Amino acid sequence: MNKTGPVRLASIVMAIALSLLTAGPAMAGDRGPVTNLPLPRFVSLKTSEGNVRRGPSLTHRIDWVFTRRGMPLEVIGEFGHWRRVRDRDGMGGWMHYALLSGARTGLVETDLAPLYARADTASTVAARLEAGVIVSVDSCAVDWCKVRVEGMKGWMVKQTLWGVRADEVFD
Questions:
Q1: Cα–Cα distance measured from residue 56 to residue 52, given in angstroms and rounded to the nearest whole number
Q2: Which pTM does this prediction carry?
Q3: What span, in angstroms and rounded, lies between the C-alpha atoms of 114 and 58?
Q4: 120 and 87 in one domain?
Q5: Is 144 among the domain residues?
Q6: Residue 62 sits in which domain range?
Q7: Which residue among 13, 86, 147, 162 has its CA within the 20 to 30 Å range from the CA of 141?
Q8: pLDDT of the residue at 156
Q9: What residues contact 56, with CB distance under 8 A and at least 6 apart?
Q10: CATH of the domain at 46
């Protein structure tokens, strides 16, 4: 009878864990092994400060600290209570799930992007938003997203925002 000793078993477990940690970003249509939610998906930073670690535990080194409450982040992996995230520039790592919110936000990518009164470029421009402004995203249609920012609400062309996919539609 072939017995697997504790050292061999530990090596196998470590190899599996390492493959999970070093795996590339999830492909569209994948599901998270912990939450069964779609991967990749967008979330937002729940707090005004969130440590981003090299691996999924408190023993891993902190590589980044995100400091903008509401910052949209893309979840590309899951491991226990940890989520592998990246920002608009592709920077990121592992964050504890308690620091993240399912509330949808978007980062304005186009300088002086118009906020329209209706989902129509012929409608009144209620405001122009600078690149880098974070907006709350209430819903998205095929080409438009309904957003709120500092007491104002309106519609933005979807392609001016990072934090929603081009093919994503939701209420």
A1: 9
A2: 0.83
A3: 42
A4: no
A5: yes
A6: 25-103
A7: 86
A8: 98
A9: 21, 79, 80, 82, 84, 94
A10: 2.30.30.40
